[in-house]
Amino acid sequence: MIRKVGVLVSLLGVLFMVTACGGEKEDASTTTVKWLTSRPVGGAIDETMREIADQYSKEKGGKWKIDFETTADRPSYLQKLKTLVAGNNMPDIIDTDPDLYAKELVKAGKLIDMKKFLQKNDYYQNFYPTALKYQEFSDGSMYTLPLEYHVEMIWYNKKLFSQHGISVPKTFDQWLAACKKLKEAGVTPISVDGIDRWPVQRYLAMPAFRQTGNQFIENLSQGKEKMSSQTGVDSVKFVKEIGQYFNEGFSATDYATAQSMFLDGKSAMYYIGDWEIGAMQEKYDAGEIDYFYMPTTKDSVTAANEFCVNSGIGMAFNAETFDEKTKDFLLYVLDHYADIYTKKMQMSPIKTELPKDVDYSSLYLRIRKDMDNTGEQFMKPWDTYLDSSTNTIVQDNLLLVGSGDMKIQDFVKMIDDSIKVNVTDQ
Q1: Residue 182: is it exposed, middle or buried by C-beta count within 10 angstroms (0-12/13-18/19+)?
Q2: For the chain, how long is the longest CA-to-CA vector?
Q3: From the CB of residue 386, how many other CB atoms can be counted at a distance below 10 Å?
Q4: Which of 289, 138, 156 is nearest to 222 (CA)?
C-alpha cells in the first residue's frame, strides 16, 4: 500500500529515499513503498537493492522511501504474507516463488505480469533464458522477477577422495559406491543440513529429474501422477540408500554445522550452490576441495550439463499499487542491478560484462563458465511445485526415510493421500 506521509517523518529502521520519476516537483509529501522481503539482511541481494534505492534517491531528489520489512525465516515470512493479503493489506512488493500460492494471487489479479512488463520495455532478452524460465508457471506465464542466478553442485574433499582411491562419480551407482567405501573407512561421506529440509528434498528430486526432467513432479503436483509410480518409488529409494551415508543426526544438523563439517574435513562431500563461493574459496585455492555436478544414470533423459539451476525466490509487484513511479524505479533497478550485484562476486540473472575493476577469483570465473554452458533443462526444486500441505509432509517425513525410520511404501502412500486431499479432490 502506497501512502503519503510528511517529509519530516523520521526514518524508521532501514528506509531508503527514492524520488518520483523524472524529478517532478511534488508538494511537501513523500511516497513510501513497502517491500515485504524474505532475503537475509546483509546478503548480496539485500545490499544491492539498498544501494540502488539509495542511489536512485540521490539522483531523483528524495521523494520516495522504500521500507524494507525483512523476515528471513521462510515459514514465518509466508505466514505474515498470507495474513497481510487475506486482510487486504498486501505490500507493494513481495518475494514469492512461482508456486501454488503465487498462482492464487495471479488468479485474484493481485500480481503484475512480469513477462509482459519486461517484453514491453525491451528487457526480456537481457536475462539468461534459464533464469526467466525458472520463474515461469507451467503455462509459460511469469509474474516474478529473478534477482539471482545459481547452479548447485556437490563439493568434495580431494584428499579424502585420493586417500581412499575414489574418482569423481559420473553416475548415481558410482556415487553410492564412493559413499559406501568412505563409510567403511570410517569417514562421514556427506554432511547435510536436515533442519532446513530442502537440502534433503533435493536428493529426492534427483532420480526423477534424470528419468523425466521436471515432468514427474509437475504431474505429481497436479494429481496426474502418483508417488507410488515407478519413478516416485525410485526417487524415495534413492533417498533411503544415500541417507545411510549422511552425517549422524543429520535431521538436527543446521546449515552452518553441515558446512563447517565439510570445510573442517569431517565429511567428504557437501551439496550446496554457488552462493557459497565465498565460504569455499580459501579451501579451493589451497587445492583441498573441488566440485562435481549431479551424476547421471544409464537411462537419463537429461544430460550431464543439466542439473539444478535456479534463480531463487522472485520479486513480485502488487497490481493495485503499481503506478508510474513504481515502474520508473523498477526500470532503474533493471538498468543498474547487474553491475552492482556482480561486483559482489555474485552471478547475475541479467547478462552483463564483468566490471574490469574487480579481480574475480578463478573459482567464480569457472562456475560462471559452467553456467554459460548448461543445457536447456534444469532440475526445479519440488517445493515450488507442491502445495504447502503436501510439501510439509514430504520434507518432514523424508528425514525419516533418510534415517531409515520410515518404509518407502508408507512414505509414498502418505504423499499420494495428501495430494488426493489437497489437489485432486479440490
Answers
A1: buried
A2: 74
A3: 25
A4: 138
Where do the domains of the chain lie, and which CATH numbers do they carry?
Answer: 31-149+311-353 (3.40.190.10), 151-309+379-425 (3.40.190.10)
Give the cell for residue 410: 508408507
CA–CA distance, 17 with 54 (Å, rounded to integer): 6
Cell numbers 511445485 correspond to what residue? 385
Contact between residue 275 and residue 309 where contact means Cβ atoms under 8 Å apart: no
Residue 150 near residue 378, CB atoms below 8 Å: no
Q: What is the pLDDT of residues 124-161, one digit of tens each?
A: 999 999 999 999 998 999 999 999 999 999 999 999 99
The pLDDT tens digits of the residues spanning 361-413 come to 999 999 999 999 999 999 999 999 999 899 999 999 999 999 999 999 999 99
Characterize the bridge pairing of strands 267-273 and 188-191. parallel
Radius of gyration of the chain (CA): 23
Helical pair 230-243 and 408-419, crossing angle rounded to 10 deg: 130
d(CA 204, CA 197): 11
Strand partners, 4: 31
Of residues 249, 124, 246, 255, the one with CA closest to residue 189: 246
Cell of 256: 552452518
What's the distance, Cα to Cα, between the start and end of the chain in Å? Answer: 32
Strands (E), 80-239: 93-96, 150-157, 188-191
Which pTM does this prediction carry?
0.87
d(CA 309, CA 348): 13
Instruction: Report which DSSP code applies to 274.
Output: G
In sequence order, the 6+-apart residues with CB closer than 8 A to the CB of 8 are none
Classify residue 91 as exposed, middle or buried by CB count within 10 Å of its CB (0-12, 13-18, 19+): buried
Report yes or no: 221 and 155 within 8 Å, Cβ to Cβ.
no
Classify the phi-psi angles of 249: left when phi > 0, otherwise alpha if psi is within -120 to 50, otherwise beta.
left
